[in-house]
Amino acid sequence: MASVNKVILIGNLGRDPEVRYTPSGAAVCNISLATTRNWKSREGGERQEETEWHRVVFYDRLAEIAGEYLKKGRPVYVEGRLKTRKWQDKEGRDQYTTEIIAEQMQLLGGRDSGGGDDFGGGGGGGYNRERSAPQGGGDDFGGGEARAPRAAAPRAPAPRPAPAPAQRPATGFDDMDDDIPF
Questions:
Q1: How far is the CA of 37 from the CAs of 57, 76, 91, 96, 107, in angstroms?
Q2: Among 46, 101, 128, 158, which residue is least crowded by beta carbons within 10 Å?
Q3: Which pLDDT score, from 0 to 100, does residue 158 have?
Q4: pLDDT per residue over 109-135, tens digit each?
Q5: CA distance from start to end of the chain
Q6: Distances in Å between the alpha carbon of 161 and those of 25, 71, 79, 141, 174?
Q7: Is-above-0.85 flag for pTM?
Q8: Contact present, 56 and 35 (Cβ < 8 Å)
Q9: Could you tell me which of 109, 145, 149, 114 has the C-alpha nearest to residue 125?
Q10: What is the pLDDT along the chain (182 residues), one digit of tens a residue?
């Protein structure tokens, strides 16, 4: 039977990222991410709030990007997987830590809101471990070897609109509403 280990979080950083390097030179970045759930109580209709804190770990190029662009309080979207580590404390007792190993990250918010990035207003930059150069219209970077930036492609003149298609007899499909919510 197949299994899935996928975590998606949207939250705010509780502190600035901590970046360190392994002896082999690989970057590792740890962040603490807060997610908050709000609801109204059944008894009095009072507003309730619950905050969960998540340990998120970034590796390689994604760790370097997280360390550079993430700051305390900024909103971020993270996709990854759960990983539980076993370690021993100073007294030799076994300890367990469950972390999210980040595979993708999206900076959220604009510059004015304290969140965001240096890539322009409004949106954020998306980053993942698989890609190492910008893809399409987004700001996707990732692990692996760094590549030289791509040169901007010259802009071609806008294409002329195609002539209107000839009128076809009504089949009934043309009268259907296209706003079907799937």
A1: 22, 16, 37, 25, 20
A2: 158
A3: 56
A4: 876 545 443 333 344 556 666 544 333
A5: 28
A6: 53, 46, 40, 35, 22
A7: no
A8: no
A9: 109
A10: 899 999 999 999 999 999 999 999 999 999 999 999 999 988 888 999 999 999 999 999 999 999 999 999 999 999 999 999 999 999 999 999 999 999 999 999 876 545 443 333 344 556 666 544 333 334 443 333 333 334 444 455 555 555 555 555 555 555 555 555 54
The answer to whether the beta carbons of residues 66 and 56 sit under 8 Å apart is: no
Q: What would the two tokens of residue 86 be? A: 């076993």
Residue 172: what are its φ and ψ, rounded to 5°? 100, -30
- Residue 175: how many CB atoms within 10 A of its CB? 7
Closest residue by Cα to residue 39 from 54, 49, 26? 49
Amino acid letter, 41 = S
Q: Per the structure block, which two tokens stand in for 29?
A: 């970045």
